[in-house]
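Dear Dr. L.,

I hope this message finds you well. Following up on our conversation about the binding site, I have prepared a predicted three-dimensional model of the protein together with nicotinamide-adenine-dinucleotide. For your records, I am including the exact sequence and ligand specification that went into the calculation, followed by the structure tokens. Please feel free to forward this to your student if that is useful.
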Amino acid sequence: MSTLDGARIVVTGGAGFIGSHTVDALLATRAPAHVLVLDTLDNGSAENLSRWEADPRFTLVVGDIRDRKLVDSVLSGADVVFHLACLGVRHSLHNPVDNHEVNATGSLTVALAARDAGVTRFIHVSSSEVFGTARTVPMDENHPTWPETVYGAGKLAGEAYSRAMFRTYGMPVVVVRPFNTYGTRSHVEGDSGEIIPRTIVRMINGERPVLYGDGSQTRDFMHVSDTAAGLLALAECEEAIGRTVTIGTGVETSMREVCRLIADALDRPDLTPRMLPARPGDVLRLCADGSTMARLTGLTPNVVLADGIADLVDWFQARATSNMLVTDTNWEPSGVST
Ligand SMILES: NC(=O)c1ccc[n+]([C@@H]2O[C@H](COP(=O)([O-])OP(=O)(O)OC[C@H]3O[C@@H](n4cnc5c(N)ncnc54)[C@H](O)[C@@H]3O)[C@@H](O)[C@H]2O)c1
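The resulting structure of the complex is given below.
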């Protein structure tokens, strides 16, 4: 029987982008007894979870992972925790202390509460940003961790605290390091806005995309359905306990190529990139080695980037308006333009 069937599951950050897709995958493809989301809604929304609102198996609790009393009460009786609550990489450029408090101290709070609740699985969602820029490609679990931002450093501390719960107390922990994820409900506005959704909204509105530096930076873009499927599969994999596992596609794509794929999907080759100075703390190269993931779970990514982008273009075409148009830069407080 799967670890997830019949389980009482808590998803921190479950109202956010990846968290809400994780909740969808849990409730739609497995048979949990209950799924509870703990989220401040600072960067997520109840709307992301609206399809489960009336489902008796689902509860949304609005609250902060830094509140130990609340986390204890939410985790009481829980079997499985997916820990995704976080503040993002560009937030760490303008608000490093808060970012650390959520990503590092908040992760320790959740891990301690999970240890005390005696959970049977703790899935700690970390990030490829713990690596810093690639020294060798593709990047497997043994690649050195030299984060370049406070976000990357806080995520590394958070995952280390979870591993400590495994090593010291035997808590069944799996640490997962997703690479860049894209798909529906990804953020457009504010400091969480990522290149793919921002570029799609710009180009739908007839604006040229914006690239930083020379646009040759690369990322490994994974569709959110593949990321969520990976998290569930690792939660169900006995052999993954105590391990740190990277999940990505193994395909390295430059920012210039992303703009070209979006231009192709919209049939707007005339909208060529506008070049701006390099972003602070921008990692130059990231590309995953997904072989551990494939060996442990038998899963490999399903969605090819060009297809995922075409789907996302359709999704935004049904929603995007000029009111969603974004500033050129989004790492200052409130997305103030330079
Ligand atoms: N998006 C990516 O490309 C990516 C890549 C690698 C790893 N990750 C990791 O995946 C996880 C989810 O990322 P996402 O992109 O969905 O981000 P997101 O911002 O959409 O989701 C994070 C959620 O956490 C909530 N949150 C923030 N502070 C909180 C607090 N103190 N207490 C409770 N909830 C709080 C936010 O409201 C939000 O809903 C994060 O741990 C992130 O580090 C994301």
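In brief: Residues 25 and 229 are 7 Å apart (CA to CA).

With kind regards,
A. P.
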